[in-house]
Amino acid sequence: xxxxxxxxxxxxxxxxxxxxxxxxxxxxxxxxxxxxxxxxYLEYIDEExxxxxxxxxxxxxxxxxxxxxxxxxxxxxxxxxxxxxxxxNDEVADAPVINKTSPGVVGHLDKSHITMHTYPEYDRxxxxxxxxxxxxxxxxxxxxxxxxxxxxFDSFDSDVIIIDYRVRGFTRDRKGRKHFIDHDVSSIQxxxxxxxxxxxxxxxxxxxxxxxxxxxxxxxxxxFDDYLFGKESEEPQAAEQKRILKLLDTEIQxxxxxxxxxxxxxxL
Length: 268
Hints:
Elements: E1 2-5, E2 8-11, E3 19-31, H1 35-48, H2 51-64, E4 67-76, E5 82-90, E6 99-100, E7 112-122, E8 128-140, H3 149-155, E9 160-168, E10 171-172, E11 178-179, H4 194-197, E12 200-204, E13 212-219, H5 238-257
Parallel strand pairs: 4-6
Antiparallel strand pairs: 1-2, 3-8, 3-9, 4-5, 5-7, 7-8, 9-13, 10-11, 12-13
């Protein structure tokens, strides 16, 4: 088995024991001022991203990273939200039959897993509605979760994206020397298309020596009509448009910075 580390080929002794973990939150924001619109938004999200849809996304991620599904567990929650847990195999010659477990039960772990959880909510005071999906992909062996980044971006509307990627453990070559990473990476942004990045403000906090990478991204330019939901789609006056855009931008910036900002001039 041959892998590349910083331009050098290595021959491994047995199985690749490195664990590569990709974990991120994707936030979608909209403005739904009325109570009716807020409920309508939650119902839309609950239907659009139910467990069946998440399971289909999980299956496609598995295909993209060249893994095999071993077992899948799904759950729809009351009143809102859904979860999927999938167990994976690495490079199996013949794909096993997918056995669905009952909700909330996770079966035999082979080498890797994917989890997805959704969290829709809204703020009655401001009319801001937020949908968050948490995604964790952990693999070992030769497969890399970074290959699935763009498919996942395309699967969800994303105003804020917070990503962590970490390579853990070690694998040993035939001379007994340990290797703590088996691919070149200095930033998660290296695996994101420039055309996609151009729409976002992004920065990194990386500890390269520890193979620990963190990237935050937020939409740079907000198009007013893209953020209205329900009755709010009726065009408000220019001054109100400006206030709503400022409200949306503040919400996005708070999620981006993970802290509360001054909102005193944004309430009706």
